[in-house]
Amino acid sequence: MMREYIDVLIAEWKRVRVAFAVIVILAVVAPVLLILGEQSRFDDDWGRGGFTAASYRAAWREIGDDPNIGETLQRRYDAVSARIWAGWGWVGEDDDRQLVYEEWELTHFTGELFAEQQLLRFLLRQLDEVNTYSDFLDRVQERAENLQAGSIFGIEDGFGLRNVQRTAEDFARLYQVTPTFDVASGAQMIFGGFGVDWLGLIGLVVFMAVLVLSEKPSAKLLNSAKLGQRTLTVAKVKLTAFFALLLSATLTLVAIGTASIHYGLGDLSRPIQSVFLGAPYIISVGGTILGLFALRFGAYLCWGLLLFFICRKVKNVGSLVAIASLFLATGTLLHAAIASYSYLNIFKYVNPYTLLSPTNLLVSYVNLNLFGQPVNLLASMVGTMAVLAVLLAILLVAKPVSEAKSVKFALFSSKSKPRKFSTRLFIHENWRLYIGAGAVVLLCGMMLVQGARFHYIRPRIAPEEGEFRAVVAYAQGLETEERQEWVAQELELHGYSHSPRAVAIRRLAERLAYLDTQDGGELVYETGWLFAMDEGENLVNAVILAMVLILLAIAVREQTFVALVRSTKHGQVRLTRTKLLTLFGAGSIAYVIAFAPTLWRAVQLFGLDSWSAAALSIPEFAGNAMPLWAVLAVFYAVRLVAVYAICGLVYAISKRGAVFGLVVSVGVFVLPLVLLG
Amino acid sequence: MKLEITGLTKNYGTLRALDGFCFTAECGVYAILGPNGAGKSTLINIITQNLAADSGKVLWDGAEAASLGGAFREILGYMPQQQQMYPRFSVERFLYYIAALKGLEKPEGQINQLIELCNLGEHRKKRLGALSGGMKQRVLIAQALLGDPKLVILDEPTAGLDPKERVRIRNLIAKVGLNRIVLIATHIVSDVELIAQQVLFMNKGVLVESGGVEELYAKMEGLVWDVVVRGEQVEAMSQCHRVVNITQQKDGIHLRIVSDSPVEGGVAVAPCLEDMYLYLLGDI
After folding, report:
1. Closest residue of B to A570, CA-based?
2. Which one of A397, A401, A436, B80 has the minimum C-beta count within 10 Å?
3. Is B125's CB within 8 Å of A410's CB?
4. How far apart are CA A157 and CA A401, in angstroms?
5. Which residues, in sequence order, are CB contacts of A590 under 8 Å at separation 6+?
């Protein structure tokens, strides 16, 4: 019997081994995705590209072994800062601090003064975090004590109080941990690349389609064979596990390799808190990476078996993708909608979406609310994965596939009564686009991508930015003379310090000097406005939008029986008009999905105040007397017109066929944007 | 109700697909027969306004179809050769979609009637992508008849249908042709032999022969011969004559030969349309 099992397993392996090639493809794509995700890691607080990974690597290579690394960094930082200030005329050229180094040494790592300052500031901040780790733990304890003393937690003996107590207990154990200062960005890259796990899901879908779906047409034949049912299913489950293992190992190794080349990994035996301050477990960086691999394997195995189960019920890849997307969308929705401390937070964290984010489980601290008791998320997820994998495997093996029982996903039974449909072409074209061609799935996917980007990629707001917002708000409330007097006092008080307050005051002074040259300008906190209209921020949105518009236009255009359609009364002019209207409608939805997160983020993080102020109040819009709201409206209106233009052009181009339309449109509309980025 | 085609010419580069084609049709079924490349599809594409002619006119009741535009297409029902349709549309949704394209306000009665007429009742909720070739063919016929068109053009309407369905569709076409003009382009001669009021033979863009079936039979009278030969004579006879059929019977091998002159030992037999097709257009 065992021999038969092995024979079937080998036969299955031979049949589907070509599908393992998808792992190779993913291994090539993953580094690109990882590196793309790192593009803004070192950007400054205004979104400007700062120093590069190569500079970061060079700095570590040179000063990483310095026993007095902190002093060296500070001395270099002071020298570079002094040199910058000297350029602004705030200190003399012969300032002692800059004379410590030769001129060329001041831009040694980056080749540029500001980038050098940024690099050194970045490293100093990291050093400061590591050196003050015990302060961080003190703050956790202090916060727990404060909360316990607070009215809500003091009175209620519920999850909130227990969670706080549990957090304090768990973090108290970490006093024995001593983080060290070393290359952190490499490890952060490994744990930050959530896109890698989405690639993993794509790989699993491809594999399951080959393993299970491709065999559906022969189901009757296979089931009638002696070993055609249970033995075959067991072999498939084993291959699923093997694929999950290989996939998780490959993607983890690729992430390690990419991070190692891109930044370096540093000492893998140092505590994980050296990289992630809030990590709650006493474990080394290397151990955490191993843990990530194990969790990834568990997650992929569960997803693989889940997809296997779905494959049993569907007939084609489209349905498989649709149902898997539904699972994922539900998980994402629950994750986004439920608050972290809600009594429903188990649904926020234990769902298909979290299975695709194993990187978060090891480096963040979360407790589930299980009937009022705080339960560690990591332990819960490991348990859930084990139970789910065993349950699904048993279910799959215990109930071998039967073609007769395959579910057909038809909305109506074929024996139901005649149904009356609309005779409006617009409604038919919309149904064809959204349901028939799957545009609704495409737009939901786009929403997910944008939501994930919005959720994961957050612009870092420097203390200087916060200070600037505060000083602008304060200065806005002062009369002109009073304001100038106050700024002069503040300048004198803070001098050439590089404290956030001093930086903010200097920026405010520059702004006031600029406003003196503009007629009709007023003091405006501009970051929100600039963020909403920032080219760099909107470029990624534009690439995603352009790709979706191309797919929509091709789907709308698709007309496989053109001769018949054109011979009907409305099959020429009116149909084209209706198709374009449908396309513009879908394009508008895609446009909102693409840009709404940026606009919302601008409002949420920075605010869009002073709507009616003249645009020239902001130096970037010097000379433009339109109100700020009008500038914003024109900016987005022009983009909407561009959306319609792209839709129309792709529609026209794809007259010569979908593939031709896709290739030419991507070349014309997407490639330049990608190259621009 | 009159369709007139006068001097239609169409060139694709140096290839002349239609060469001064002329033809007039009134109520009834008209079969257009011809080999591949004869110009049938080009003719149909011009009539259905999918293609513009280089010269010549298509007239409907004396008015030029091109200038009538939508009004001409309103009286037109066209069934193209079997092809991909929107696979996720159900049969009835597809018919409503075509009804919308034809500008029909309340098509439900017609749609239900056509669904029954084309034997699609059990499949009305099925997606087009899940239908067999024959069922798709029936859907295409149903949509062509939607809107009660005065001019129905059917391109290979019985391709892919089983014998029972072919008879059913043939009878349907005959009924439809009672008060409409029906043009059928086909390779299957036997399908139109029984129902065509007039048959048009096309070759290389030119109308080679046309007329009623009986009229064409009369023209072929005395040109079709049945000869009984031995096995070893078959090859020699095939070299000398146009043999359209070979059957083995008890008394020997029967050769059906189309020939302008009498065949030695041959007996003249009644002609059929296939004989004419091969006589006019076929090199065996």
Report:
1. B101
2. A397
3. yes
4. 51
5. A443, A446, A545, A548, A549, A552, A643
